[in-house]
Specification:
The protein is built from 14 helices and 10 strands. The chain has a domain of 59 residues. Helix 3 crosses helix 4, helix 4 packs across helix 7 and helix 8 packs antiparallel against helix 9. By secondary structure, it is of the alpha+beta class. It is extended and about 110 Å long. The strands form 4 sheets. It has a 3-stranded antiparallel β-sheet with strand order 3-2-7, with helices on one face.
């Protein structure tokens, strides 16, 4: 009785996930960090799997591009409170953002560098940007950061070991990264070690003690590969079924004369000359062999597989299939997706803010920027505004935004950033410039001003 009571109580006082089970896969009891689980060999395999999908599967490539469209586009806006200084900073950032001024290879603008960096973060897990002494950037893809073959001498109070090419202190802070060069035979050669002060590390982190990034798409690589493979198999089967054949069914003859074998048997049919009429013997039937492929079950399975894979990037299915839901369903999915983009944009904004501070400090040191009285380097403010999303139904949404402004629920700047990703003040300034141009060119009447009325002349009430 006591054992039975203990067994019954034990069934309640437990976490089922912590109990061993023979009915499902046992996750084991060994807890490891992401860097330990994803060993260098496994990291290389996962990276190449993601790159293979990017190169050869249009759905995976589309999903990554769609992610980049919503996450990686920003506009620089200075906010110092001094219009002249704002204009100077924005002009300098625009100049530096050109390929020949920003990229050490002279190929990519700052806008494209950020987009490519986010793409590499999605595919490889992380990417590094090196700040060069000449004020340019050099991108280092994640696979080039790896443990050196020969460890450098251990420094005082610093660990000698690397974690996938990154050397850290006891607190886990990055001290340096070991940069390698790719060889033609697939091997790597140590190029140099770069200190953390010159590095910007853009990565996807899931835990506090994680050193290298892990891509969110890694959980969907198998799903995308399955979808790609079964689609190829289905296409091959569909091609076979298109090689249609005409089958004849003949009832057994009552005659067993051996001479019948010498007689002509079967029908000779040629489909190459248009409609064909077949005169069949009594009892014979002719029908085409066909296969209803792909089946509805296969299509449902493929859709479910792709839906699960797209969730790795938080992309709703209505982005892929516009007819999947109605307007309100699409709108709801978009709002939720926009929410999921915020944390990803914040990572990129942090990188852009650090780059902006680095470049401004160089311009100040070189005398390119002369601060007005009362300003110093720490008082300069700016913002990187993510790309906006225009109104879906302007006639209704604009009225709602106007009501929000009138009732002090939102500001003009918030709405302008949300809709177009730029500054409301710039819009007002450009609008004023246009209005003044119209007045200067066409006169006050161009702005709808009422023309001056001619003076009425009162006639004398006298007879001629």
């Amino acid at each position: 009785m006591g054992n039975l009571l203990t067994d019954r109580l034990g069934q309640f006082a437990r976490y089922i996930a912590g109990e061993p089970s023979n009915t499902r896969r046992d996750p084991g009891t060994r807890i490891q960090s992401s860097d330990q689980i994803l060993t260098p060999t496994k990291r290389k395999r996962a990276t190449e799997g993601a790159r293979e999908l990017w190169r050869n599967y249009s759905v995976a490539a589309w999903a990554i591009r769609k992610h980049l469209d919503y996450v990686s586009t920003f506009t620089f806006q200075a906010d110092t409170g001094n219009p002249a200084l704002n204009e100077q900073l924005e002009s300098l950032m625009s100049w530096w953002g050109r390929p020949l001024n920003c990229d050490v290879a002279g190929r990519h603008s700052l806008k494209r560098i950020i987009r490519l960096a986010e793409a590499r973060r999605v595919i490889d897990g992380d990417v590094f940007l090196v700040k060069m002494a000449n004020g340019m950037l050099q991108a280092v893809e994640g696979d080039r950061v790896r443990d050196p073959d020969r460890m450098p001498p251990k420094k005082l109070n610093e660990p000698a070991a690397y974690t996938h090419g990154i050397r850290t202190n006891k607190a886990g802070k990055m001290l340096a990264a070991s940069i390698h060069r790719r060889n033609a035979d697939g091997t790597y050669t140590l190029e140099r070690e770069i200190g953390a002060g010159r590095l910007l590390h853009l990565a996807y982190f899931d835990s506090f003690d994680q050193v290298r990034g892990v891509s969110p798409i890694i959980s969907a690589i198998s799903g995308f590969q399955d979808a790609l493979e079964v689609s190829d198999y289905a296409l091959a089967k569909a091609k076979i079924t298109q090689l249609f054949a005409l089958a004849f069914t003949r009832e057994q003859s009552d005659s067993f004369d051996d001479d019948d074998d010498e007689a002509a048997s079967g029908y000779q049919i040629d489909f190459g000359k248009g409609p064909v009429s077949v005169d069949l013997d009594p009892g014979d039937k002719a029908e085409f062999l066909e296969s209803k492929h792909p089946s509805t079950e296969f299509q449902a399975f493929l859709q479910a597989t792709l839906q699960a894979a797209l969730k790795s990037l938080d992309i709703p299915w209505s982005f892929f299939d516009e007819s999947y839901t109605n307007f309100f369903g699409s709108r709801s999915a978009l709002v939720q997706y926009q929410k999921s983009c915020e944390s990803k944009r914040d990572d990129l904004k942090e990188i852009l803010n650090r780059l902006t501070g680095w470049r401004i400090s160089k311009w100040l040191a070189n005398g390119v920027i002369s601060l007005p009285p009362g300003f110093d380097a720490h008082s300069l403010k700016w913002d990187w505004i993510p790309a906006g999303l225009p109104w879906w139904d302007p006639s209704k949404e604009i009225k709602g935004d106007v009501l929000a402004i009138e009732n002090n629920l939102r500001t003009r700047s918030e709405i302008r950033k949300e809709r177009y990703g730029d500054s409301w003040r710039d819009v007002v300034r450009r609008k004023a410039e246009e209005d003044q141009f119209l007045i200067d060119t066409l006169g006050p009447s161009a702005m709808g001003a009422a023309p001056s009325q001619p003076t009425e002349i009162e006639e004398n009430d006298t007879d001629d």
